[in-house]
Amino acid sequence: MIDLTPATLAAIGPVAFVAAALAAVTGFGGAAVLLPALVAAFGVRAAIPILTVAQLIGNGSRVWFNRRELDLQVVGWFALGGVPLALAGGLLFAAAPLKPLTRLLGLFLLSIVAWRRLQPGPPRRPPLGSFAVVGAIASFLSALLGSVGPLMAPFFLAYGLVKGAYIGTEALATVVMHVTKLIAYRQATVLGTDVLLAGLALGPLMIAGSWTGKRIVDRLPERVFVALVELTLVGAGLLFLIRG
């Protein structure tokens, strides 16, 4: 059983709000903020399923706030590859070595930002069908690591999605991924009632943070938005690489 005292949830609540607001602005980064607090309170094996429940609520709210700008074709292709690999990763979660995968992800993120900045022309637009591959890789790693929003971001941006279209479409793809992961976690017996309740308790703050972030992103110029996402990618990459 995990500690579900009001004091524990009150301490984590403000972190959940900030995490959701950051994710609503950049499309990711919330997990990097919230996961350390959850690990400190509940331990690694409980923290990642709790994070998944909380992020499901946060992403669902971002879908609603950006519902008029969604690219459903991208989400459909993402789900095609993502659903089976999210199930596989979720079933492997209980025994997987997480640190080497996390460091590899950090190196990948730094390489992506460097490639985007150093290439002579604008990023090549990926074909729509490539999102099945993106979904497969991202969903598998997300089931093991908790969240890989930074891994997904460069592909959504390269496809031409920015601001509300990027935030909402990425969030809907992530909702599909998180629902599948929760089914797998349940089968792997790492999603107990106490874990589910802890994630649900953070839900209202995740929604409030998403609403706040939406108000911010609507006022950002497109170039500033892309630069902010790239800076967050670099920060996440360094964090993953150094801390594992």
Number of helical elements: 11
> What is the CA-atom radius of gyration, in angstroms?
17 Å
Helicity, in percent?
over 70%
| Shape estimate | globular
Whole-number average pLDDT? 81
Regions with little confidence, pLDDT below 50 for 5+ residues: none
Order of helices and strands: HHHHHHHHHHH
Explain how this protein is built:
This protein is mainly α. The protein has one domain. The chain is 80% helix and 0% strand. The protein has eleven helices and no strands. Helix 4 packs parallel to helix 6 and helix 5 packs antiparallel against helix 11. It is globular. The model has no long low-confidence stretch (mean pLDDT 81).
List the helices and strands and how they pair.
Layout lengths: L5 H21 L3 H13 L1 H22 L6 H21 L5 H21 L11 H16 L3 H10 L4 H25 L5 H9 L1 H15 L4 H22 L1
Helix pairs in contact: 1-2, 1-10, 2-3, 3-8, 3-9, 3-10, 4-6, 4-8, 5-11, 6-7, 6-8, 7-8, 7-11
What key phrases describe this protein's structure?
mainly alpha, single chain, globular
In short, what is this structure?
The protein is an all-alpha fold and 244 residues long.
